[in-house]
Amino acid sequence: MTRATIAGLGTAVGHRVVTNHDLAESLDTSDEWIVERTGIHERRIGGSCLELGAQAARLALNEADVDAADLDLIICATCTPDQVFPAVANRVQQELGAVCGAFDLNAACSGFTYAVTLAQSQIAAGMERVLVVGVDTLSRFTDWEDRTTAILFGDGAGAVVMTAAQNEDRGVLSTFMGSEGRFADLLVCDFGDYIRMDGKEVFRQAVRVMVAASRRVLEDAGLEASDVSVVIPHQANLRIIESAMKRLGVAQDRAATVLEVTGNTSSASIPLAMNAAREKGAISDDDIVLLVGFGAGMSVAAALLRWGQ
Ligand code: ACO
Question: Residue 1: which pLDDT band, with cuts at 50, 70 and 90?
Answer without folding.
Answer: confident
